[in-house]
Amino acid sequence: IATLAWDPVQDPSIVGYYVHYGRTSSGQPGACAYENAQFVSSPNVTITNLDNNTHYYFAVSAYNGAESACSNEVSTLTPPSAA
């Protein structure tokens, strides 16, 4: 599980955000090239079904009918499984 929160975009036309994530970095600032994406309407999300003991990379884009460039990337290492 990974929980993310970010400052909302101060634009009334924004209807939500795409959280892009995956096991591989996009390699490009502003790029949204990740394995998965999840749409959320608020500036926070909890992503489940992540593999244990695995590095994940995340970036967020704003959406108002068109998608913005992605934010700076952040990463985390998920904890090992609780055995």
Sequence-ordered SSE layout with sheet pairings:
Blueprint: E1 2-5, E2 16-22, E3 36-40, E4 44-47, E5 55-63, E6 74-77
Antiparallel strand pairs: 1-4, 2-3, 2-5, 5-6
Structural notes for this entry:
The chain is mainly beta. Helices cover 0% and strands 40% of the residues. It has no helices and six strands. The protein has strands at 2-5, 16-22, 36-40, 44-47, 55-63, 74-77. A four-stranded antiparallel beta sheet has the order 3-2-5-6, with no helix packed on it. Strands 1-4 form a two-stranded antiparallel ribbon. The chain is globular. The model has no long low-confidence stretch (mean pLDDT 95).
Looking at this protein, list some descriptive labels.
about 40% strand; mainly beta; 4-stranded antiparallel β-sheet; two-stranded antiparallel sheet; 6 strands; about 80 residues; globular
Compose a concise summary of this entry:
By secondary structure, this protein is mainly β. 0% of the residues lie in helices and 40% in strands. It has strands spanning 2-5, 16-22, 36-40, 44-47, 55-63, 74-77.
pLDDT below 50 for ≥5 consecutive residues: which ranges? none
What's the arrangement of strands in the largest beta sheet? 3-2-5-6
What's the overall average pLDDT, rounded?
95
String of helices and strands: EEEEEE
* Major sheet details: 4 strands, antiparallel
What is the straight-line distance between the termini? 16 Å
- Approximate strand percentage: 35-45%
Percent of residues in helices: under 10%
Envelope shape: globular
Q: What class would the helix/strand composition place it in?
A: mainly beta
Q: How many strands in all?
A: 6
Question: With helices defined by DSSP (H or I, 4 residues minimum), what is the helix count?
Answer: 0
Give the C-alpha Rg. 13 Å
